Amino acid sequence: MSTRTRYSEANPTRTEPTHAQGIRARPLVDSATSASASRTPSLRVNPLIDPSATSLVKGQWLGGPERDISNDLQVPFLPLHPPLGPTFLDTEACLCRREPNPATSVDHAESLLWRCSGNQTVADVDVTTGKWFKPINKDEDTQIVLQLPLNDGSNPPLREHPMRWDSESSSLIPGTEGLSVWDQACTGENRTSFSTSYYRAAAQRDNAEVPVDAAPCWRPGAVPLRLQDVNEWQTKGCLPGFLCQNNTVNSLPQFCPPFAECQMARLGYHACALDGVNIGMGPFEPIICQAGKYCPPGGMTTFNCPAGHYCQPGAAVPTPCAVGSLCPEGSSYERYLIPLGVLIALDVLIIIGIIMLRFRNRLSSSAQVHQGSLSKKSESTVVGLARAVTRRKYKRISDEGERLHDADHEMSAVGSPVPPGRGDVWVGFQEALSMPAQSYRNGDGIMSPQGEDLERSLPPQIRAFVDSMRKATHDSEIGLSFGYSQLAFQPKGSSRPILQDITGSIRNGRLTAVMGGSGAGKSTFVNVLMGKIEYTHGRVDVNGVQGKLAQYKKLIGYVPQDDIVLPELTVRENIMHSALVRLPRTWTSLEIENHVSAVIDCLELSHVRNSLVGSVGKPVISGGQRKRVSIGMELAAAPMAIFLDEPTSGLDATAASSIMRTLKAIASLGISVITIIHQPRLEIFEMLDDLILLANGQQLYEGPESDVQPFFEKFGYAFPKHANYGDVVTDIITGNGRAYKKSGDISKDALIANWIACRKQSKLRLSSASVLAVGNLGASKAPLDRLLKKRGASRLKQFTLCLSRAFLQQYRNLSTFWFEVGLATLAGFLLGLAENAKNGVLFMGLYHPPYEILSTASDFKSAPEMALLTAIAIGLVSAAPGVRVFSEEMLLHRREAEAGHSRLAYFLAKSLSIVPRMTMACMHFTVPLWLLSTPIMGWGLGFVANLFYFYCIFGLASAISMVVKREDAPLFATMIALIVGILSGAAPPLSSVRNWKMEWLWRMSPGVWLAEIYFGQLVTPLGYVYDIQSAAGMTGFRLDGLWKNMGLLIAIGTIYRILAFVGLLWGTKMRI
């Protein structure tokens, strides 16, 4: 090319452009585009180009040999020989300069054209290649044109009419057919940033300096690695989520070894950045799109994320935010405000509702007190004053203390009439003690006129109770008679029986006490009569009818030794629930209400009917009143027989006497009362009608209480005067009667032998009749089968009653509810705070090929670890409350189930009643967690997934509470919930567990399914920028199956509840 004019002596960088389209000198990419070579870190840069190549003087640059350059490294910013005349780089990094038409002389007026050639790798020696353009204006003098500065833009190419060199005609012809892929891309349109770097490099080489602006990598001595070839670039272009502003077919993407600072940033899960702006390690290295911005397909530009959207790192399109979420312009995450507002509104509404409800209850209580005061004023002033004085101050206290007004003595209900026959002191059922013991009915059960007059003389409360009992039994006889012969019980696997050879009877309308020492078989004997235990030998009749005793449980009441009542309910509510469940289903609501009121009045509980029962640790009513409530729960069911286990246990002497008088009165009304009693005081002992004395599982005596002293005196025992006969009898039957018998055998075996001998005598045979002789009294009069069919509410009715009671319990125990909610809020807040620094970026994987080498350190653990921490937090928050759902009421449930309550109705009602509380706890946990951690997983999905996991943990805790002791269950459940959370597949990873052939064990934990939901929802949306399949393979989680996993969580929680129900049925035997 001898005709080519060499580079001008004028410094092109000092010449201003003379045309509107002139090239403006500025950095490769300015601060707005964040890809400038001049915006790289202020480090010394030694480019790849050998500095010795720049030591040539102007006009003496050397080019390389002509060869195949398709695979050479592209260096479009590096001037390979001195440029002459106007020169620039176009939008596709083609080098455009004024060249003479190869077919004409350089001196020809129209010989200078624009030639744009691509793929600048080595010195260009072929002047015919590239895309040719005519200048817009005609040149007057070619020599002047070649001496113009490089950045002169006064006569740009006419880009609308490109030409190419035709070798056959040796001329330029219109069109671009046959050009190389690099030349085909040339546009002839100046790109300022490219050209500026080229000019600076040319000036640096012109001054014999290192061409820093032409360096392909910023790291000194770094060798770039091409990421895409031209074919792949044309096929795929810049991958989604990346900014490739400087990349074209003539400046293909490259990877450059990073600086140490950049390498540290990448190892710390961050992109290389300068002043908070992501940068590459070379001008042609793709850059991951900045957080808070998005890079549309093509990767040529970047935009701020618009308001109402958020853009995570690598966003190709902005992600719309949910309605009501906080997403200002430039957001990289979404803050959910609607759930926060809903949660605050719910809390405020709950608080307002509680305040209003309590205010209404207080007004109602005040109105009742005021109405009672008005009723009292209607009495005569003199009589009222006399009664007030008598009641409050000047009442005579008897020596025995029978009328002592202590905490257990009950005043009449406010405004209720004073019952006749007992003066002005109302003592409930004890009014019935004035009724003579003899019966006023003939053989057909018809009441005599004397009996009718006597019943009319009873107080109206007792008459109402008797009428209710008769209505419930459909008969005038309201008690059950038991007869038993040769009764025995021997547990399986035991070598000796607990009961043996028990023969006798229990008549209705009698107060019968079962006495004996420890291990005598008292409880076993009573349990056999109640049908709780099936006897192994002998025969038992009920009202003369033989059959399974368990079928009569709806007609029998049982009062345990401990006062098993619900402390959150009032006296009336405890008794009313028992009545609604156990009374005949044909009764109307008014009839049930009247019956319950009669029971409460007769038990002297009127003035505390609306008082909470309270617990033993925090009592509200006295111990005697609690015992009366326990008895009232059985009387509310209109039983025909009541069994009591040591009813005086834990009571003071006065309260114990009051309880026993009440039982005596109940028996006098016709109900069979059988009680286990231990060391009664003399007053109580004399109240008893009949005694059954046991030792070593056998009878020592059975008969009237009045005959027990003569019976033992017959065998040489002497009862001291003024002694407590109950204590004497207890000493004798426990083998400690030497003080009462100076000589002879006092062992229990001797006492048993004495009774066996006496039982054979005809005189005692009448009082201890055989089974067949006892029961016929009511065999034809009490159609028990007809009664049993009508007793008890339906399962659906019991379900609604138990559900209503469970909700009421939760309302009365609001402190526990707020504690659970507060703990859930704290757990969600702390967990969200721990994840807050990640700004919602909970997954970082390998970029899709061929950009994987640009990846930062992979973060496959954040998503599973968030699920792990969530599972652990939910377990810690809900395990103990889940245990309390059933464990606090196991004794009460057992009592109710033995009385005929539906176990299924109770279980379903309790399980359903905790759903609102569980939902509120989940909301208080999820809202702060999502508000602070800002994951890309939607709040709704997160709430549902967390709620289902709450469901699982509550079910697991319920199952544990059935088989573990009450005091150990909370800690045990918390530990199991912690283990279940750890088995979520985060650590150790599920992929490792799969290699151990133990995945089945992890899959049994609900934590795995929760973690898989989290992983899928946090990772799948990023599949356009990351290779998520490799991440799934390395962690072991599946990416799909969202609703399948949700269903499995529900299934696991349901299985836990099924196990809990099985434990409810047989948990007593399974308890650890």
Automatic annotation (TrEMBL):
GO cellular component: membrane
Region (Disordered): 1-46
InterPro entries: AAA+_ATPase, ABC2_TM, ABC_transporter-like_ATP-bd, ABC_transporter-like_CS, ABCG_dom, ABCG_transporters, P-loop_NTPase
Keyword Transport: yes
Every ABC transporter domain range: 482-721
Pfam families: ABC2_membrane, ABC2_membrane_7, ABC_tran
Entry's transmembrane regions: 336-357, 814-834, 866-886, 936-957, 969-987, 1007-1026, 1047-1066
Entry's Gene Ontology molecular function annotations: ABC-type transporter activity; ATP binding; ATP hydrolysis activity
Keywords: ATP-binding, Membrane, Nucleotide-binding, Transmembrane, Transmembrane helix, Transport
Domain of life: Eukaryota
Principal location: membrane
PANTHER family: ABC TRANSPORTER G FAMILY MEMBER 28
UniProt name for this protein: ABC transporter domain-containing protein
Organism of this sequence: Triangularia verruculosa
